[in-house]
Amino acid sequence: MLQFDGNWRFDSPGPIEPTVNHAFRDLIDRICSQGDRRTILERFKSRFAGAGGAPYYPSSSATISTNS
Question: φ, ψ for residue 8 (rounded to 5)?
């Protein structure tokens, strides 16, 4: 089980380190190699937008369902 500082629950601990950002991108790229890259990236975009409370706008050429 991951253990987080309880203060992070309501306030951001600040910007993430570039290495963390690169690690997330690496993970997403590995997942994308298992299927249709555009579909998978759109799925990540929709989930991250929802988690951040931001609206999701699919890329103009994306034709996927984000309801699953």
Answer: -70, -15
Pull the structure tokens for residue 48.
Answer: 């991250």
Crossing angle of helices 37-51/18-32, nearest 10°?
140
Write the pLDDT tens digit of every residue in 34-58.
999 999 999 989 998 888 788 999 8
13 neighbors 5 (Cβ within 8 angstroms): yes
Q: How many residues does the chain have?
A: 68
Whole-number Å distance between alpha carbons of 15 and 44: 20
- 14 dihedral zone (left: phi>0; alpha: psi -120 to 50; beta): left
| Stated pTM of the model | 0.60
